Every structure is written in C-alpha cells, then in structure tokens.
C-alpha cells in the first residue's frame, strides 16, 4: 500500500511539474518573424524588400501549441500583420513594410522654379515605394514635358503633382474653339472662356451668341464638351 501511494504521489508531482513547465514556456519571437515574412512574401511583388517592426512582444505570449496563422492588411508599402495562435488563443500585431521599386520621373539636373520642363531636364529612375507613398508621381517623361516647376528642384528630386503643374493654356476671357461631341456628331464652335484652365481641368465657357454656359474639358487638342452618346 505504501509503495502504491508513493508511486501515485510521484506521478502527480511529475504531471504537475510538466504542466508548470508548459505554462512557463513563451513564444519564440523568431517563429513569429518567420511566419510573418512567409505570409508577406506571398503577396509582395518580386524583389520587394520586406522589413518587420518589433516582434519582441512575442516572448511574453504563451507558447503556441499549433502552427501560427498570419493575416496581412493595409496597402503597400505600410502594412500590418495579425499573428494568430489558436491554442492558447492570442493575437500579436506586427508592422510590415513591403518596399518595391518602380521607375518614376526624377530631375536629371537642377530645375529652376517657374521654368518649363524639357525632356533633357528629367529621367526615369528606380525608386523605392516608401519614398513617395501617398503622392502622385509620373511614370512617363512625356507626362511632365512642358509642365512648370512650382519650386526649384535639385538633381534626383522626385517629380510629383505638388512640385510641377501643367501650364495654363486657356485664359479667362479668351475666345476659344470648343469641340462639342454627341455620339457620332462632332461640331466645333467658338466660345468665351469664363475661367482659366490647364490640361485636364474642367472650365466654364459661354456661347457668345446665345449666352448659354456649359462646362468644357481642356485637352492637349483644345476644349471639349461631351454631351453623351
């Protein structure tokens, strides 16, 4: 009897010790890093650089007894990874930067503010997305040719919609030719511009004969009114 009781006590102590050991174990941050990188790489462009924020908080989480699952959210380059453990249940959030590169228009030489941009002033250069995230950039040299530099730009500066603007091609009060289109019908008439405009702008114009006012879109080939099909 004494031997059986002693064996039972030893078994209980061993089981208790094992439970305490498991309870004291914490998640390995390197396992979290590996899981996040693998998930981010599945959606990242080829050759993109993937950088993770701190994962040290993983060492305070109980060790996960099942494979980790990761959900990536947000837009490149700045995203967030939600690392989920199902047993025991916990979630850890890790910031992720997916920095791909793209050829965009940059200054090939210093450009003086107020000057018109020529093809020789700019070039295409691969730049990481993190340098211009949230800004409108240009991918073709012809998109900025003839545009005006809003401010002086050093060599290598990325051209954006805030640093260059299209020149004013229509002045308020100017008489212009307006192309009026309606389905297959295309009629050109003279109208008076009531607003100044750049290419891409919508401006108000008026028929000097009837006084009727309507909106026209300024295009590289002149003002256009689209009445529908």
Automatic annotation (TrEMBL):
Residues 1-21 form the signal peptide. Pfam families: ChapFlgA. Residues 102-165 form the SAF domain. Belongs to the FlgA family. GO terms for biological process: bacterial-type flagellum assembly. Its main location: periplasm. Involved in the assembly process of the P-ring formation. It may associate with FlgF on the rod constituting a structure essential for the P-ring assembly or may act as a modulator protein for the P-ring assembly. Keywords: Bacterial flagellum biogenesis, Cell projection, Cilium, Flagellum, Periplasm, Signal. InterPro entries: Flagellar_FlgA, SAF, SAF_FlgA. It is found in: Periplasm. GO terms for cellular component: periplasmic space. It comes from Acidisoma silvae. This is Flagella basal body P-ring formation protein FlgA.
């Amino acid at each position: 009897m004494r031997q059986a009781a002693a064996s039972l006590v030893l078994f209980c102590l061993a089981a208790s010790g094992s439970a305490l050991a498991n309870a004291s174990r914490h998640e390995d941050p390197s396992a979290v890093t590996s899981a996040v990188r693998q998930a981010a790489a599945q959606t990242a462009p080829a050759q993109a650089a993937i950088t993770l924020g701190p994962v040290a908080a993983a060492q305070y989480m109980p060790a996960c007894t099942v494979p980790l699952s990761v959900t990536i959210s947000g837009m490149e380059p700045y995203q967030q990874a939600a690392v989920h453990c199902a047993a025991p249940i916990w979630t850890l959030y890790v910031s992720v930067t997916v920095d791909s590169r793209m050829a965009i228009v940059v200054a090939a030489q210093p450009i003086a503010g107020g000057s018109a941009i020529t093809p020789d002033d700019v070039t295409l250069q691969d730049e990481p997305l993190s340098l211009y995230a949230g800004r409108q950039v240009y991918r073709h040299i012809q998109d900025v040719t003839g545009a005006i530099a809003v401010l002086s730009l050093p060599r290598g500066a990325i051209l954006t919609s805030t640093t260059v603007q299209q020149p004013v091609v229509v002045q308020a009060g100017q008489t212009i030719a307006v192309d009026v289109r309606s389905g297959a019908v295309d009629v050109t008439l003279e109208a008076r511009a009531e607003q100044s405009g750049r290419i891409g702008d919508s401006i108000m114009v008026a028929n000097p004969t009837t006084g009727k006012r309507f909106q026209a879109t300024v295009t590289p080939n002149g003002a256009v009114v689209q009445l529908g099909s």
